[in-house]
Amino acid sequence: MDEEITIIDSKTRNEKIKNFFIKNSKKFIVIIIIIFLIIAGYLFYEKAKEKKRIKLANQYDLSLINFKAENKKKTINELIGIINKKDTTYSPLALYFLIDNNLIEDTKEVNSLFNKLIDETNLQSEIKNLIIYKKALFNSEFVSESELLKILNPIINSESIWKSHALYLVAEYFYSKNEKQKAREFFNQILILPTNNNDIRLESQKRLNRDFGE
To answer: Which has fewest Cβ within 10 Å: 22, 97, 183, 211?
Structure first.
């Protein structure tokens, strides 16, 4: 008797499941189609993004290959165009090339390009910090103390791997201005960092020993 009841319950349960799927078959088909479209759309997007990056990489390489001093305006425009694409790899590289080759004389324009990378490009945090540091390095010869610190504060107030570099830049800035007490404070900050660049640490210690008698 118990076995018969079990068989009946099993058949009833199976029948309910079958009816449920039959009743909701249209919904399941719609869900499957939606999932398929989402996956297909994602794959298409990734493929298109990869093609776009390859095209951008080729543009960057050609700009460098075709660079000539007598026709630098063309290279400048091409590299600025790449920066405006806000690509995480080639936009920073394009700006570095412009700066390393002194292709843009207007410091405001260079800083505007830096800001486009820092504020508008979806960079990893440490890549962004590196660009902030490079911006500070670029500006260090002609900005005021407060302006330099304003640029570097996001790094100085963080645990970034570039923190010791930022502190060293500020220390050297003050030393060049003959503000030795401020320079010493920043050199000493480097020495007490729990983690820092060993080369920067050693150089800071040398500077303190040589120039401050510590």
So the answer is: 22
